[in-house]
Predict the 3D structure of the following.
Amino acid sequence: MITDYSKTLGDLSKEETVRIQNEDQLYLRQKEANRRLSKAPSRKSCILCNCRIKGREFLHRNVSFIACVECGHIQSKALPPEGFPDELEGKEQFTKIYPKLGKDEFEDRKNRIYHPKLNWIFSALERSGYEKSELLKMRWLELGSGNGAFLSSLEDMGVKEYIGFEKEETLIKRSKTFVAPERVSHSTGSLGEIIRTNQAEIICSFFVFEHDEKLSELINALKDCQSGTLLCFSVPMFGLSCLLENLAAERYARSLDAAIHVQTFTDESINYFLHSAGFQKIATWQFGQDALELRRFLLPIIRNTDDGDSLAQKLDDCLDDVQSVMDRAGLCDQTHVIAIREQAC
């Protein structure tokens, strides 16, 4: 299996600056979401394996989470109520995570964040024995296509057959500014339903699975994929950032916030997910933003010291090196995976 590590954190500097600027507001929204979730009834079954939920329980910022004993998946003990957290006034919607962009801003974000994803997919698959010309001819499907940045990257790469599905109508409208309208469709069903009704040879999905409360249904749909189907996805991991969040409980939590993120993956739960769906892992790319989280939590403290500016600069200068160590140690807060559907028995 191919394993790659790390990328420069400078690619995320603009998004990190915005996060820091809005941190107080984000924290207050998150705190209210946590309060509402604490009043919700407990889950009866695991999101991933669908077994009766039981396992090790732990508190994360005063919210109860449970690591399923059957599959290792981490999820809130409370079952989020219907529409949660959509009922929150001024919630951190995906349309705010992906704000409206002009053409230059769109191209900049695409080049910094989405082109590297696609370049890695092609690189890993070519190292696994695929020809680039073969990959360009395949049918690509993206689940949760957002504002169309990855779809546009596929176009730039020369892929001819591709389509994306997105449930947020605002994002669909925005994506049609940058990609042909027929390349993106409104998602009204589950991820499993989309897979079943849109045969694809390569299925891609970036930071979407952790928002799905029907992962067992997704697994069943993937089971029905043809042998040789490729699955390329990224998910958040229970890593160092989750631990850091408990050391800074009065700050905005990006990883396991019990609002936008009420579940997260582990190595065990990813392996369970793939094995249950009949897929074999062929490549991973491990990198995270944990060093940026460490910097965000330390920066107010550093700035109050006599030599704050110098210390802040020294920290900035070593962020990539610090993150690289975390990535190789398996402590990073996310992972990218490529897997292939095995021959059905």
User: Anything to note?
Assistant: The first strand starts at residue 2 and ends at 5.
